[in-house]
């Protein structure tokens, strides 16, 4: 089984990008930590990062039926990513939204996510560790399914 890790715009340069806000861990570091978290449960990680909304939508469509859940950091698409929102509305598995930073402690325009109402849960402000927590939560939800 495969878990989808989806990262949106500007998250490919994590570690180098505003490290005082987003931390020093790279996307590769995060992928490794999440993969290690889910491997013991028999899950492989499929990590996809795009800066463009269209590519992210395509990835959601492509992996609708071959993944068991998803961790999604939409980046700034949280604000007005209506197309990504609709793609995720049609994603048949549980998914969790993650933000590295505490978006509520930041500018007003980051205080509301158009995706969040569709997520099983949201992890905010805990840095790279938030992705690991989201992975654990998905394993937990999955165990409840069985
Ligand atoms: C972010 C928060 C967003 O508001 C911002 O646009 C990002 C990163 C985060 O992980 O904290 O690109 O999603």
TrEMBL record:
Enzyme category, top tier: lyase
PROSITE patterns per record: DEHYDROQUINASE_II
Pathway(s): Metabolic intermediate biosynthesis; chorismate biosynthesis; chorismate from D-erythrose 4-phosphate and phosphoenolpyruvate: step 3/7
A Pfam family this chain is assigned to: DHquinase_II
Entry-linked CDD domains: DHQase_II
TM spans (from-to): 114-134
EC number(s) given by UniProt: 4.2.1.10
Binding positions (substrate): 73, 86, 100-101, 110
Site entry (Transition state stabilizer), positions: 17
Active site feature: 22 (proton acceptor), 99 (proton donor)
Swiss-Prot/TrEMBL keywords: Amino-acid biosynthesis, Aromatic amino acid biosynthesis, Lyase, Membrane, Transmembrane, Transmembrane helix
InterPro entries, sorted: DHquinase_II, DHquinase_II_CS, DHquinase_II_sf
Recorded catalytic activity of this chain's protein: 3-dehydroquinate = 3-dehydroshikimate + H2O
Quaternary structure and partners: Homododecamer.
Function: Catalyzes a trans-dehydration via an enolate intermediate.
Family: Belongs to the type-II 3-dehydroquinase family.
PANTHER family: CATABOLIC 3-DEHYDROQUINASE
Name of the protein described by the UniProt record: 3-dehydroquinate dehydratase
Naturally occurring in which organism (per UniProt): Pilimelia columellifera subsp. columellifera
Lineage, opening ranks: Bacteria, Bacillati, Actinomycetota, Actinomycetes, Micromonosporales
Gene that this polypeptide is encoded by: aroQ
């Amino acid at each position: 089984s495969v878990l989808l890790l989806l990262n949106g715009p500007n998250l490919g340069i994590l570690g180098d990008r505003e490290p005082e806000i987003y931390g020093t861990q790279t996307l590769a570091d995060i992928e490794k930590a999440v993969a290690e978290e889910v491997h013991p449960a028999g899950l492989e990680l499929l990590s996809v990062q795009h800066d463009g909304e269209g590519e992210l939508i395509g990835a959601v469509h492509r992996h609708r039926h071959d993944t068991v859940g998803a961790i999604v950091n939409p980046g700034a698409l949280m604000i007005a990513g209506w197309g990504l929102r609709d793609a995720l509305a049609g994603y048949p598995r549980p998914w969790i939204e993650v933000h590295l930073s505490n978006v509520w402690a930041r500018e007003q325009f980051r205080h509301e996510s158009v995706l969040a109402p569709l997520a099983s849960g949201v992890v905010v402000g805990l840095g790279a560790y938030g992705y690991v927590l989201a992975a654990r939560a998905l394993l937990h939800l999955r165990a409840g399914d069985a």
